[in-house]
Protein: Glutamate dehydrogenase
Amino acid sequence: MAVSTVYKEPAPLVDRENPLESMMSRFNVAAEILGLDDETYNVLKAPDKQIIVNIPVTMDNGQRRVFEGYRVVHNTILGPSKGGIRYDMHVHLDEVKALAAWMTWKCAVVDIPYGGAKGGIICDPTTMSPGEIERLTRGYTLAMKDVFGPDRDIPAPDMGTGPREMAWLMDEFSKTTGMTSPAVVTGKPLVLGGSLGRVEATGRGVMVSAIAAMKKLGMDPKQSSVAVQGFGNVGSWAAKLLSEKGLKVKGVSDISGAYWNENGINIDEAIAYKNAHNGRLDGFTGAVKMDADELLISPVDVLVPAAVEDVITEHNANDIKAKLIVEGANGPTAASADPIIRDKKIMVVPDILANSGGVTVSYFEWVQNRLGYKWSENMVIERAERIMTDAFEKVYATAEKYNVTMRIAAYVVAIDKVAQTYKYRGGF
Ligand SMILES: NC(=O)C1=CN([C@@H]2O[C@H](COP(=O)(O)OP(=O)(O)OC[C@H]3O[C@@H](n4cnc5c(N)ncnc54)[C@H](O)[C@@H]3O)[C@@H](O)[C@H]2O)C=CC1
Ligand SMILES: O=C(O)CCC(=O)C(=O)O
Structure:
């Protein structure tokens, strides 16, 4: 059988911002504030390891294609590395490196015993059949069998993946090791040892941090409006839970475009529409279609970017009207926009704090798998909310202490924890 593609050249980053550079520039500011020593700085600035694999997959038409996949383990000083797997055509090694480092900082901010990692495969899952995606997922798992492990590196869902892919990953890993290992991956279906509350956990954390920030800013949720970019797992749950808190969701968007309703979008209807239409809002009649770029600069009080990186840049930051940005996505704000947003006095709850509800409940899932015991949904929600609220208050206090933005404060909290751990553990 002919091999049609041997190597997929990663999409160049020349025409877009580089998330790794954005991550590093904030890391440098926080390292300076902390007076981080050179040894620890040098260890943290680069990932522990980067694995690149080529995964041959027999497509439904009999052709064999080869997909390029990555796993980057940024750091494991706090514990086994943790982080999602992304299926998208824009996956790039530098992006995965940034996402892996963000996982280290995120786990440190919420004080859970994990390091950071991230994976990705350059593919377009929207054009692949379930069988093709399954073979790809199993091939990736096999290629990473020496990387993954319940005490080593624990994947989870990210863009383009969900419980279905995590189930295949768990099954393939279990077969290669000869024992059922639910704790090797989180975000699994409930029946395979998934946790109650994990599906909505990231969106719930976005809601919790948005409400905490609104309280600080003296904003009344019932008198406030919000726009949410991205209507997948994170965006749709954030929109639903924010609307349940009384905010009027005036705008939402996904890859098909942006949708606006001045009187508020009925989010349950939008979710039902999306679920019935291949995960997309295209054709949704509960709102008027608008220019996708307009959504981020629309007249709302709160903005929740919950799709991809670098959508807020020096080119549109000045036009943002929201008083509060809560980052559901990883890296939605390029570093070039930071000073503009700061000068406009917009509060930003940064990604490594705002979207940490997902990994927090993943941690709970892993704990439950290891205990062989299931927690109630209320216990999951109550514990996750407590962790997120405590982290928010710690970051807020750090921002006040050093007179810096919430983003820099979150990096300070995270890097300080990692650096202290190095100090006690030693080893270099
Ligand atoms: N799933 C999770 O638990 C977590 C996800 N995140 C981050 O949240 C973001 C979204 O992830 P998920 O919701 O899981 O992905 P998903 O695959 O469920 O949904 C992505 C959504 O974004 C939309 N989208 C893609 N490109 C877009 C664009 N250029 N403009 C507007 N919409 C666009 C898609 O149509 C879809 O609605 C990513 O940055 C991810 O890294 C962060 C923490 C945890
Ligand atoms: O749930 C997890 O373990 C990680 C989720 C993730 O990839 C993220 O927080 O960006």
About this structure: The CA atoms of residues 25 and 335 lie 7 Å apart. Residues 377-402 form the longest helix (26 residues). The radius of gyration is 21 Å.
